[in-house]
Amino acid sequence: MNTLKAVRGARDILLEEAEDWSYIEGLARRVLQNYHYREIRTPIFEETDLFVRSIGETSDIVTKQMYTFLDRKGRSITLRPEGTAPVVRAYLEHNLQREGSTTKLFYIGPFFRSERPQAGRGRQFHQIGAEAIGSSDPALDVECISVLLHLFRELELAGVKVRLNSVGCKGCQPKYKEVLLQYLRSKLTSLCSDCRARLERNPLRALDCKKEECRSITHDAPALTGHLCHSCSEHFGEVQAHLDNLKIPYSLDPHLVRGLDYYTRTAFEVTHPDLGAQNALAAGGRFDELIAQMGGNPTPAVGFAAGLERIILAKGGKLTTPSQELIIYLAPAGEKAHRQAVKLLHQLRSRGIRSEMDYEERSLKSQLRLANRLKAKYVAIIGEKEVRKKIVSVKDMTCGGQEEIALNDVVGVVAQKEASVCQIPHRS
Ligand code: HAM
């Protein structure tokens, strides 16, 4: 029988890598909480209609990438391909709006898109995302960019770049679409088959097409920013003024549109040079019309999401996560010693001292070898003599020294040793 493997595009996150993930997630939680975002966890699956209505019928995500299935009652269910629509659904369902203030929510978790897997692109991937719902203040758009940069700074991720655009609103976007449509119609035969098929319904999609033939055409397409209405133009100007004021570097990209239809006004991407073709570490923007479109009162909102796999990739495995090394390994010899070790282990762990013992009746010699391999700082030897004298022989694995400590004092002594060398969290 063939051994089973993880499904292509989904992978196991193992050991050190999983520890790196926890570290990044913890850091992200702290940074986001600093900016006064609160955590939300929405289900992994939703009714398909939620995504079709919000992301857009012509988008690549809806037409090609969703994991959709019928449940036992014949309802169409989709594994969430992104987090904004579920957050808006939850916001409306649970009346999360705050009188006179913005509702700021963040999420960390898995998302699913059936794309061709490659470096930085999975079918199950993970996002750290946030949504600020209830205000159109351009300062909030800039807060989204600034919280991302703060996180990347904490991760010592150098070389990130911000690309910025405004995609207008339902007032000015249709006029621009008309201008763009005219331009693209004149190049129709050179566009890829996907862009040709969706051209009349949504010409903006062509600007986001990654195919070479389309890119060379859209390069010379009329810019969206030249067609913004007065209030979108003013809003965009304010976003830039805030960025300048905070000395956040960015570049304007008049052809930046995102693959999701709900965006209005600000759209941005944060890229990293080491990511190759999938160079977006994070992306986001405003979605001022989505909440009304989903049945709520007209409510402006802005948000972003960063890809965890891409953060790890951009770091190139150079994370300084807290050490997982053992403080003390207990090496008992004999039945009585084993029982004593179980109790001592319980006491050590209750004091928060990372500890482990032998469960396989190894010889003392092989326990010491194992402790060495596990990089334990100390080994507590409990042999016949130790049981008789109610002591433990504690060996310091760094300097090789050994001392006898009364059984009842071991926890206190080890805790003290640790406290004296370890005022700040351990780093490997
Ligand atoms: P998105 O641009 O589709 O936006 O995804 C955001 C980030 O998720 C990307 O920049 C990338 O880092 C990561 N990502 C997306 N797809 C994959 C994949 N297949 N494999 C690995 N990483 C991936 C959104 O999802 C919006 N909901 C962001 C947002 C929140 N806008 C407003 N609020």
Report on this structure.
The protein has an 8-stranded mixed beta sheet. Strands 13-12-14-15-16 form a 5-stranded mixed beta sheet, sandwiched between helices. Strands 2-4-3 form a 3-stranded antiparallel beta sheet. The chain folds into 2 domains: 15-172 and 228-315, BirA Bifunctional Protein, domain 2 (2-Layer Sandwich); 328-417, Rossmann fold, CATH 3.40.50. A hairpin with an 8-residue loop joins strand 9 and strand 10 (280-286). The model is unreliable at 422-428 (pLDDT under 50). With 428 residues, the protein is of the alpha+beta class. The longest helix has 20 residues, at 15-34. It has helices at residues 15-34, 48-55, 60-65, 84-93, 138-154, 173-185, 193-198, 204-207, 212-218, 230-245, 290-293, 308-315, 335-350, 364-373, 384-389, 410-421, and strands spanning 38-39, 45-47, 68-70, 76-79, 103-112, 124-133, 161-166, 251-252, 264-271, 280-286, 301-307, 328-332, 355-357, 378-382, 391-396, 402-406. The chain is built from 16 helices and 16 strands. Bound molecules: histidyl-adenosine monophosphate. Histidyl-adenosine monophosphate binds at residues 82-84, 113, 115, 120-122, 125, 127, 129, 131, 258-260, 280-285, 303-307, 309-310. Residues 82-84, 113, 115, 120-122, 125, 127, 129, 131, 258-260, 280-285, 303-307, 309-310 line the site of histidyl-adenosine monophosphate (HAM).
What attributes characterize this protein structure?
Rossmann fold, BirA Bifunctional Protein, domain 2, 16 strands, 428 residues, elongated, disordered C terminus, binds histidyl-adenosine monophosphate, 5-stranded mixed sheet, 2 domains, 8-stranded mixed sheet, alpha+beta
